[in-house]
Q: What sequence folds into this?
């Protein structure tokens, strides 16, 4: 009786078909770039295993290759993750360093602005103090007092009355400019003896007479309280003192009340 080969889905695949499937699977893994270095040992079987190899369906090789692939992929993933972590840490460190540098610069800028503001305020205050000092007026002799009043009458004066006031002063007492201005006369003044006339910034003039010495020159700028000479008894006098006049012009005859003049400029006497 003749036997016939089973057909349909229950028929076992031919050896050629199974080998072809194995080769196709390996080729697919090789194309993925992960089995090139691990496939060779699977094909190095000894002759004693030939019979078993002929019966091998190719599944064992695929499993071995799959394990190697998994290990390789895992290692690659770990390396990539490590690199990513390092890059992230580096970026974070760079960002923190940039932020810290920005903070340091901000603080330095704020400190600089504060220092500049303080310096500007100090300069402004100094200018204001200097302005006040230059605009201030003082007594021509510090701590002195009026010994002869304005417009007092006597035969001692050619005009018949006193054109200024006399400040009490011993010989050689410091005489100072009552306010800021420019010297317009410095030298002998006849009955006034050695005298100085100063033009002030507000356009008024003051005169200092009977000096024993003069320490300024014509054209020289002076400031309030600056020494301009020493008191004495030169000219038409009966004793040492300072003759002081306030004027609207540099010449004789333009006199005004010197006490009222000084008080109008803030001098208390």
A:
């Amino acid at each position: 009786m003749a036997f016939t080969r089973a057909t349909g889905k229950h028929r076992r695949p031919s050896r050629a078909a199974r080998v072809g499937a194995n080769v196709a699977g390996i080729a697919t893994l090789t194309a993925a770039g992960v089995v090139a270095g691990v496939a060779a040992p699977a094909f190095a079987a000894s002759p004693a295993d030939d019979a078993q190899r002929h019966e091998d369906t190719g599944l064992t090789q695929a499993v071995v290759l799959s394990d190697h692939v998994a290990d390789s992929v895992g290692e690659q993933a770990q390396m990539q993750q490590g690199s990513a972590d390092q890059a992230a840490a580096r970026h974070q460190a760079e960002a923190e360093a940039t932020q810290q540098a920005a903070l340091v610069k901000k603080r330095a800028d704020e400190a600089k602005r504060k220092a500049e503001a303080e310096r500007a305020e100090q300069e402004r205050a100094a200018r204001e103090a200097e302005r006040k000092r230059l605009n201030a007026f003082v007594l021509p002799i510090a701590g002195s007092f009026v010994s002869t009043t304005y417009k007092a009458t006597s035969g001692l004066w050619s005009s018949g009355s006193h054109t200024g006031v006399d400040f009490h002063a011993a010989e050689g007492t410091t005489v100072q400019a009552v306010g800021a201005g420019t010297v317009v006369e410095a030298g002998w003044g006849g009955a006034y003896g050695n005298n100085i006339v100063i033009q002030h910034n507000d356009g008024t003039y003051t005169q200092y007479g009977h000096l024993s010495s003069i320490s300024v020159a014509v054209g020289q700028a002076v400031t309030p309280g600056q020494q301009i000479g020493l008191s004495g008894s030169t000219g038409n006098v009966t004793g040492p003192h300072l003759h002081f006049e306030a004027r609207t012009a540099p010449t004789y005859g333009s006199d005004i009340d010197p006490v009222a003049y000084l008080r109008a400029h803030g001098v208390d006497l």
Summary: The radius of gyration is 58 Å. Confidence is low (pLDDT under 50) at residues 1-6, 21-45. The chain is about 40% helix and 20% strand. The first helix runs from residue 15 to 31.
